[in-house]
User: Fold this.
Amino acid sequence: MIHALPKTAEALLVAGLVAAVGCVGEAAAQAVPVAIETQEPAAVSLDEARSPWQLELMPYLWIPAQSGTVAINGMPADIDLEIGETFETITDNFNFAVALHAELARDRLTFFADAMYLSLESNDIPTESGEVDVRQDQGIFELGAAYTLVSADDVPPGPGVTLQPLGGVRIRTLSLDIDSSTRDSFSGTQTWADGFIGARAHLTLNDHVAFRLRGDIGAGGSDFTWSELAGIDVRLAQRIVLQAGYRALDTDYSDGHGAERFEYDVLLHGPYAALQITF
Assistant:
């Protein structure tokens, strides 16, 4: 049984649960009409210029503030970390991380996938009964689809709105290992899946600037979960877009009872940045 840990170890445990990755990717960048020259220049419509399939890859970073409660083996710990504290915990204990979003679109249908993984590790953390080694691994994986009801491509050049309802499944996995030479060690893993539904909108102001919004709600393994996002897109080149904004993700999950209870009831919220590359 692992009893109360000092603040350094507690910060590592709770911050590692979902610390530095996240940020669900958004709708594909707007295709740009092109002209094809044969013997005489001829304008080509958007539908003719667009390839049958369009692929997007988007690496990203999200460092959120965290608030809520985590309980491991019935031992609760309150979370209240500012963005700077989350960042410091990650940089001090970083082991490995990846955050990549991908979308494959054709006509009005878009499939998306997201893989987010973070590993934190710290050795020789002092406790009341000796030093412990702590490793925390967590992943958030998402699969889903969106359908374009309204497209900015349907109107003449200028400001336009793209609106897409969406749905999918979000899989969460958390793994914690605590090794001690002076008392019992601990190792445990929790994995659950939530279905979600929502919508996203993309407001194109001109060829260089656009705004995006997304929201979804879900349940399944969790009692309830919701997510919101608001951001701005700046086109750096025809196929490269820089994204920045603010995102929130709330999850209320619990499993087991008494001394075996696991609880994760945490709100994450903070700025994000992403680089969208279209192929």
Remarks:
- The domain at 7-278 is CATH 2.40.128.100 (Lipocalin).
- Residues 47 and 107 are 8 Å apart (CA to CA).
